[in-house]
Amino acid sequence: MSSPASCKHCGSPVPANRDDGFCCTGCQYVFDLLHQQGLDHFYDLKGILSVPPVSPQSLRERDYEWLADLAKIAQPPGELRLALQGISCVGCVWLIEKVFTRHSGALRVNVDLVHGEMLLSYDPARFDPVAFARDLQAFGYLVGPPVEGEERKQASGLERRMGVCGAFAMNAMAFSLPAYFGMPADFAFASWFDMIAAASATLAMLVGGSYFIEKAWHGLRMGALHIDTPIALGIIAAYVGSIGGWVFGVEGLKYFDFVAIFIFLMLVGRWAQQAAVERNRRKLMRDTSIPDSVTLVEGGKTISLKALKPGTAFTIKPAQSVPVACRLTSPHASVSLEWINGESEAQDRKAGQMLPSGALNIGSRTLEAEALESWQDSTLRKLLEARRPGEFRDLRLERLLRWYLAIVVVIGMAGAALWLLRGAGMTAALQVMISIFVVSCPCALGVAVPLAEELAASRAEKMGVFVRSLGLWKRLMRVRRVVFDKTGTLTLENPVLENPEALARLDAESLSALRTLVAGNLHPVSRSLFDAAGPGELRPDSEVREEVGLGLHFTDEAGQEWFLGRGWEGDACLSKAGAVAAAFRFRDELRGESVDEIRALQGRALGVYILSGDRESKVAHIAQQLALGEDAWHAGMTPEQKAAWVAEHDRHDTLYIGDGANDSLAFDAALCAGSPVTGRSFLEQKADFFFLGHSLRFVSGLLDIARLHRRATRRVFTFSVGYNLVTVAMGVMGHLCPLVAAVLMPLSSVATLSLVALTFSLEKRARLVSQTELPVPAAVGVVA
User: Fold this and answer.
1) Which residues have a Cβ under 8 Å from the Cβ of 191 and sit 6 or more positions away?
2) Exposed site from 239, 388, 441, 525, fewest CB < 10 Å?
């Protein structure tokens, strides 16, 4: 089977049901817009790199009231720092700069690709930040409030440590080299050189070494061992030995340059390991459908959610979630319960009826309601505050590290005792012991494993999957059970237009009217029609009004009424002045390649299950399409029931994939979890990975990448074992001095980096050969 075609815009795989070269209408729209406006140099700068697919839903009308308010209080005036979603390469930076400079009053924009932010400088009297944000949105970039507080502090802390320790390492090496090249001990500035090297190593210990020592100590207090423990042992041994050698004038114990360089290299490795994960975490901004506050009906005062009490009358804006269970006081409402029970159809509510916590206002009007419970008692709060377990503990690795540390300590002490018995003296014995502790540090693992993480994450991104958890690859290797939510996960988020020819027959006027009607509405039918029609020209100055339960309408400049609502000829009809212009039919549809992917997972001896809050008849229909037995699917489940099922069946081997608030508790019970990006969920922010696009064929690909990652790390580990055997033997024999250690450390790092790169490149070459020469049965699915 040949490799799937790549999207012309983003590079993601093109679904099997599309033959236009694009993965979605969003990418097609942006591709055409870039060429129409002469900005297609973007693709020259992007090169072969993949960029995030442009979800059609990200091009919908958005509320930028928050941005207008932020611009009013900006300090200093004319300067704004904003979060950016959708940037991934230098082409994105170039495009954003081009879009910015064509706005009146624009002065300067600095785009931070690493942190997903931009800093705007502009003339407040002439520049319109909201207009700029809407212009960027047309190209698939979304702006949001800047990241503040502890989250921003943590993101930059490791970078600062790395930068400072890099300077200390250069300093320590520069003032240690003269001694290696034969500088006599009685040289006038020899003592100054030692002092500067010692000061540099000490500062490196305080700034960077403390990072690993604190983590190792915290792990030991929790009864856990991880890779930071042997790193901390080596750093402490080298530093203490160096201080002793400096004080007592023993040259063979001075490892100051080694201490500073080793700390710097370990920080580089740790930063590289976290960089891709942090970058992916910043690709998505916080879900704006969940408000931080609500507005009271009387007086229009804004209060925090924590202040919501039973009896409080408040408002719910369009596209916002209902924070607490409440009684509707507005005449009508159109809401979606998809988050709560998986029901994809819109629900109509009348005055006096209850709105459950977590329901979404998909109408175009602000609703009024009376709270029936406090925020502390609401279901939405419980789901939002649920937390996934911390870092995955690999017990096998902990046992291995325990034995490793014990062996290193025993060999080090035995080596020292052996030299004492031979009458070499305490200094020589200490040098042997410290040199063994130093060279046994997992330097090679510390720099090679992050490279494996980066290469694996890059492979995943080519499939539209973005990793958010450092422990994902280890967790995936333990997976024996894959559990799917139904609505929005196995099936597409929106119903599929069954008769696209009806849309193709519309003239430009009717198509523009249809886009105007659906652009600001979140009803499933409106979302589906927006996806199918794609963004484009809207009718200017046309106020769309909603008749809840009936449809949407507006009057154009010629006085003719356009209406979209239920009709006899289809699920929805577009009419002009009472005459039907088009009738549309819809159906729920599985994500692309779902059937093949389920077969591929079962072919790997994995259990596949569906847990859904939707009706039994609808879940049974999907299960039948996927050829799943009756014991492999469950319908009508509450969030608590989903979590209880996972907790009962999980043996630290369950992968859960879902997209709604009713999946939040099950996320926390599973070993690892993933979520599609819908733009209306918070699960992407707590998942181990999130994915874009309409296909499910990435699941097998992720498992293949996990195996490749394990293969690469095992080869590095095997090399490291051999390297340690040789170097420890040299240490016991007394052939290791600071100079030899300083030479071997970078050489071993280069060797392991090359080993990882070779493993991934050989696999890629073998995969390309298999795709062209050895066809794979259709049921096996697609390998990354």
Assistant:
1) none
2) 388
Q: How far apart are CA 504 and CA 767, in angstroms?
A: 40
Q: What is 293-383's CATH topology?
A: 2.70.150
pTM assigned to the model: 0.75
Residue 55 corresponds to which tokens in the numbers above?
A: 């979800």
CA dihedral (87, 93, 94, 95) positive or negative: positive
CB 609 within 8 A of CB 666: no
Give the single-character DSSP code of 292: S
Determine the 3-state secondary structure of 784 from DSSP. coil
Q: Which two tokens stand for residue 544?
A: 């769309």
**What pLDDT band is residue 776 in, cutting at 50, 70 and 90?**
very low
Q: Give the Cα-Cα-Cα angle 384, 335, 131 (nearest 5 degrees).
A: 80
Beta carbons of 260 and 173 less than 8 angstroms apart: yes
Token pair for 773: 């020469």
Domains of the chain, by residue range, sit at 152-282+391-452+707-772, 293-383, 466-492+590-696, 496-587
Domain 466-492+590-696 falls in which CATH fold?
Answer: Rossmann fold (3.40.50)
> d(Cα 17, Cα 209) in Å, to the nearest integer?
54
Residues 6+ apart with CB under 8 A from 296: 302, 303, 312, 313, 314, 315
pLDDT per position as a tens digit, 199-251 = 999 999 999 989 889 888 887 887 777 778 888 888 888 888 888 888 877 77
Q: Quote the CA–CA distance of 111 and 116 in Å, as a whole number.
A: 8
- Distance between CA atoms of 696 and 600, rounded to whole angstroms? 11
Distance CA 285, CA 303 (A): 23
Residue 348's SS3 state is strand
How far is the C-alpha of 405 from the C-alpha of 440, rounded, in Å?
A: 9
Angle between the N-to-C axes of helices 395-421 and 698-732, in degrees from 0 to 180, rounded to the nearest 10: 10
Percentage of the residues of the chain whose pLDDT score is greater than 90: 24
Render 383-401 in DSSP notation, one character per residue.
HHH----SSPP-HHHHHHH
In this structure, CATH architecture of domain 496-587:
3-Layer(aba) Sandwich (3.40)
| C-alpha to C-alpha distances, 317 to 3, 111, 307, nearest whole angstrom | 45, 32, 18
Q: What is the DSSP letter of 206?
A: I
Q: What number of other Cβ atoms are within 10 A of residue 762's Cβ?
A: 12
